[in-house]
Amino acid sequence: QSQKIAIELDEQSLTYNELLYYAQCLSLEFLTNSNYIPGNVACQCIDRSISMFIGMLSIIMAGGSYCSLSPRDHEHRLQSLIEQTQNRRERNIRRWL
């Protein structure tokens, strides 16, 4: 089961083992090298990609609530969405991928 394809998008794919590995690594990085507090909302601003799914899973694994933001949205809209989640800072965890 762990070698079966978990995600396939365009020309890319990840097995369940690979997805779990990358999500665990990112989750650990997120918890140890940011000011994130488990239980808070974490926003991720990224285009639809396999990295987006890794980020989503890692936020949940870190004990967070996930909020997806589109980089195509206007800056004011993004700021409004972030404020609505009562998140003080946007968490774009893409830099850790």
From TrEMBL:
GO biological process, any: secondary metabolite biosynthetic process
GO cellular component: cytoplasm
Top-level taxon of the source organism: Eukaryota
Gene3D superfamilies cross-referenced by the UniProt entry: 3.40.50.980
A molecular function GO annotation: phosphopantetheine binding
UniProt-recorded name of the protein: Uncharacterized protein
